[in-house]
Design a protein that fits this description.
The chain has 176 residues and is mainly alpha-helical. The protein has a single domain, classed as Arp2/3 complex 21 kDa subunit ARPC3 (Orthogonal Bundle). 72% of the residues lie in helices and 2% in strands. The chain has 8 helices and 2 strands; from the N terminus they run αββααααααα. Strand 1 and strand 2 form a beta hairpin. Helix 6 crosses helix 7. The longest helix has 26 residues.
Length: 176
């Protein structure tokens, strides 16, 4: 992705920021952390945009929410969204996209690299999000894992597989 024009990559990063916002509205509220489609777009950006632009797309998304645009699940926004139980998951999006992009890498696409990248990206979201959930709601670790990770693993694996499949289709078109 390094040979892409900066304007094209800005457009793509902006598109993924917007898609992530749309994905946040496709939500199933099951507790303090809803099931959202947003992380599918985080994964797809991480695999498609590269190590510079993937995290930047998420920083744009997070910045829009921080300044008050209702781009987070349930229309949440502002600093309170970052201070709440889902704040760690939101912040993790930028880190997740960065590490997925690093692992999947540029050059010849490999299914196994993309699968490892998505798995690492999912783990990063949990590693940052669950502790924030625990401390914001003053839970013990078992409750935090039950509320913020365990019910999400099957869906995240399905979204990860869908992202890998989508990128396998999109990557050749993106490189045209």
């Amino acid at each position: 992705m390094n040979d892409k024009s900066p304007i094209r990559m800005m457009v793509m990063a902006s598109l993924f920021a917007a898609l992530t916002a749309v994905g946040a509205y496709i939500a199933v509220p099951i507790g303090p952390v809803p099931i959202v489609l947003a992380n599918f777009f985080v994964m797809t950006a991480g695999l498609l945009l590269g190590w510079k632009w993937a995290p930047l797309s998420m920083v744009v998304y997070l910045g829009l929410g921080l300044i008050g645009l209702p781009v987070f699940s349930g229309g949440a926004s502002g600093p309170a969204a970052f201070a709440g139980p889902t704040g760690g998951f939101l912040i993790a999006y930028a880190f997740s996209a960065y590490f997925m992009a690093l692992i999947s890498g540029a050059g010849e696409p490999r299914l196994w690299k993309d699968a490892i990248a998505v798995s690492a990206g999912i783990a990063i979201v949990y590693l940052i999000g669950v502790p924030r959930l625990k401390y914001s709601l003053d839970m013990d670790w078992n409750k935090a894992l039950t509320a913020g990770m365990l019910p999400f693993i099957p869906g995240d694996l399905i979204k990860g597989a869908a992202a890998v499949a989508a990128v396998k289709y999109l990557r050749p078109r993106f490189n045209d």
